[in-house]
Amino acid sequence: MTPSPWFKPALTRSLKSGYGRSDFLADLAAGLLVGVVALPLSMGLAIASGVSPEQGLYTAIIGGVIVSLRGGSRVQVAGPAGAFVGICAAAVIAHGYPGLALATLMAGVMLVVFGALRLGKYIGYIPYPVVIGFTTGIALIIGSTQLGPALGIADPAKAIPHFIGRMQHLFGGLHAVKFGCLAVATGTLAVIVGLRKISLKIPGALIAVLLGTIIVTMIGVSDSEIPTIGSKFKEISASFRLTDWQASLPDRAAWLAKAWDVLPLAFGIALLVGIESLLCAVVADGMSGDRHESDTELAAQGVANIASACFMGLPVTGVIARTSTNARAGAKTPVSGLIHAGTVLAILLILAPLVKLIPLASLAGVLLSVCWYMAELPLWPRLFRSGGSDMILLVLACLITVFVDLIWAVGLGVSAAFVFLLIRKSAHPEKEEPETIDVEERADEVRLALSGHLHFGRAAEPRAVETRLKAGTLHLTLEFSHALFVDCSYAQALRELATHARRQGVTVRAVGLQGRAASDFARFGLREVISI
Q1: Is the full-model pTM beyond 0.90?
Q2: CATH 3.30.750.24 fits 431-528, yes or no
């Protein structure tokens, strides 16, 4: 079947442009590294989501294969992600795994439709402070699920779906802290952080888990003192299994009733997959120099989620940590993602019996390190210094994510951002300018004339200019004479454009700054990457 114009897999583009031995060797090295990085993360995320560890590995394998074959990004790696821990854990408690699987299946269908309708570009309308806020909120949710295993506090008799309840259980169990578990979790964190400072190419999480497992096994500590995967999950299956729909959904009426019940959950999963995967693809573009096909990516993520739901997996999305590792390791094409999936599969088939020996505290240490790096805490002071609506959106998105729901956080965050934008525009109607961006290409210069309100709804504009920076371009000039203000999301897009240009040896400068646009330029720290 000939792909329609909107469906342009990166693998096809890569192979058509030429693929040689050096490309394969680069992909092989990167894929092997990402595969071993994905192993402890996938198991830890599965356990935190309330399912067995091998289901996280199934998700990494299925997502890695399908998204690499049909996705729109050259170096993106897909699999289970920390962003879904809160949603999945709550879904398993409320609906059981079959309910989560059905919601994931429905989300996959929605994503395929989103791609076919070419809705990928609208993901860019989510303001940057909202993205950082819900990312921090997700990190807090994951952390609340992992502090108990890290301290050796016994799980509650019935799983707790809410943040406050988990923290109450945690504080109530502080008298029963097991210092062996605390030592293992702390040691895991120390190894990961230490190795990360030496080189980002070292699989610190895997090395930390291996060391923790070896030490605990050699010492001979009992499972009651330092619980292991084997003490919680009696059987680790290396064989793929089809999801057992029949047991919980015996007839058509049950299917329809459950589908209606999990419809909001399915939409939430679809929305989060779209946001996470396309944000990840943008990060991958900045590291690889490529431009992803957003609608192709959405469709591929949809197919991957349908397959994952059918084979006992979790929601699939592009994962920034693994994608960054892949790009830094020198990956050239999606072949590296296929090799990553093959590596996880080989380890699952060969080492499944040994997985039982891994201490839960060690996996908790891995996930706590993920929380720290995904929380984006260093960005909070900058956004607080910017003040005003950006600070409100940041705090609002974080608090609603933690205490209510991620979908409400995104919905209310975007709605509030539009309200703030309308208020800002109405404050000075006499200064209204058309919202345009004009690109002029000269012999060795690209010049952008930015007019009107530079807000989050236009944040995709600077990224689209990256393709204009061709060989021979020496200068990028940003003309702000008719710009009225710059918000945080547009400022971040300008920062990314300037960083991309400087990597290509292009000097970047701003001219015509005046009034509110000039003060916005200063308060967002754009002088770090753009000269005036």
Answers
A1: no
A2: yes
